[in-house]
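Reminder to self: tokens first, then the designed residues, so the page reads top to bottom the way the pipeline ran.
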């Protein structure tokens, strides 16, 4: 019985000693941190290629001595949201704000282009550009009207040649009669690679109009191609 009491006492003393050691080491660690004046910094978990769209999961936060933290270092992972890597980021490297490109940056157009797409600028006018109401981020359909010649016969055709395309940039700001006015003389479209040639030829050879899509509409619902004779009375169509 006495032996059991001694064993229990030994276990209790061992636990108390362990707690004391833990507290001591924790105090030492805190004291060391205070002495070193540690501060947070965001670092990459692994190598990240340039032009990669960044997410918080790619990074972690560590503490470094204040004197070793770069002046432009990112200190909160929330600052990563909506950015791309301008250059390659190395594993364990401090992430610098100067090496990030924000999605809404005017100088970061190439980062807004969808994979497999190209930024294509086409000229538009007040009518063809929906009276200047198209804004970056809107989705449009592209409608072409063109004269098609076969032998000695020329037929005017109107057809949709691009659907649900995102606008990357529009027009330019000018000053007219003391008022700021948005003059939309061109639009830059996020264009699938296989449609680039079609849109270029359409803007060069035919008349192109943009059709603004509802903000939340999905899918590629479009009008069917039309020929001028379809507007004639039924008895006159041939």
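Designed residues (238 positions):
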């Amino acid at each position: 019985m006495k032996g059991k009491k001694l064993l229990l006492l030994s276990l209790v003393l061992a636990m108390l000693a362990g707690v004391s050691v833990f507290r001591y080491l924790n105090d030492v660690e805190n004291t060391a941190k205070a002495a070193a004046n540690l501060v947070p910094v965001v670092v990459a978990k692994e190598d990240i290629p340039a032009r990669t769209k960044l997410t918080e999961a790619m990074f972690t936060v560590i503490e470094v001595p204040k004197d070793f933290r770069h002046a432009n270092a990112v200190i909160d992972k929330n600052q990563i949201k909506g950015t791309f890597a301008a250059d390659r980021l190395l594993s364990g490297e401090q992430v610098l704000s100067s090496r990030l490109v924000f999605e809404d940056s005017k100088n970061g157009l190439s980062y807004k282009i969808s994979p497999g797409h190209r930024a294509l600028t086409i000229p538009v006018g007040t009518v063809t550009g929906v009276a200047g109401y198209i804004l970056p981020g809107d989705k449009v359909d592209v409608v072409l009207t063109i004269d098609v010649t076969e032998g000695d016969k020329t037929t005017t055709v109107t057809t949709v040649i691009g659907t649900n395309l995102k606008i990357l940039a529009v027009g330019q700001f000018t000053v007219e009669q003391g008022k700021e006015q948005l003059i939309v003389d061109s639009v830059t479209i996020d264009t699938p690679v296989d449609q680039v040639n079609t849109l270029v030829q359409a803007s060069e050879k035919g008349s192109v109009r943009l059709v603004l899509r509802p903000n939340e509409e999905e899918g590629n619902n479009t009008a069917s191609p039309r020929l001028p004779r379809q507007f004639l009375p039924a008895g006159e169509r041939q």
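The domain at 38-102 is CATH 3.90.1210.10 (Type Iii Antifreeze Protein Isoform Hplc 12).
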